[in-house]
Amino acid sequence: MKSGGAAVLVIVGVTGIALMGATLSAQSRGTDRRFSSPVEVSCAPAHVRGEVVRVELSDDGTMMGGVAPMGVSLSATPASVKSGTITFEATNVGYLPHELVVMPAPTTGVGTRRVNADGKIDETRSLGEASTSCGAGAGSGIEPGATSWVTMSLRPGLYELVCDVPWHYAQGMVSALRVY
Ligand SMILES: [Cu+2]
Fold it and tell me: Per the confidence metrics, is the pTM higher than 0.85?
């Protein structure tokens, strides 16, 4: 730090030191891609196996004191993929924590599962999930800005990609995936 900076710190006191620290911290990360995109992408798998399906998890926040999620959405690209080894990369671009659970599609149609009193669906037939911020597999949820990933082998068929944070499925946070 320059000597002029020290003099300023004496005058502005502790608050100023904290602010200056935050500024320096932001500047030192200036080349970080997190700060060059409106969507904060802070992590990704180092090695990806098989076909890749990118899943975007989003929302418009909550209402009713945080109980009711608004504008939740789950989209998969591509929505149709070759059978075999498939890696899902799920990125949360919303405001709330989300997750990705891969399920066989119910015979009654995608998005038609019964939602229990706790706002969740029955995950008994889950084939795997990505719900670890900046990590693989099942965890405690994907925080906003983070990505989680999971690799699995899928046979041809129709699958359902689900976010099973309470009430998110009920609000339509589900999408079809065709495996051919
Ligand atoms: Cu969700």
Answer: no
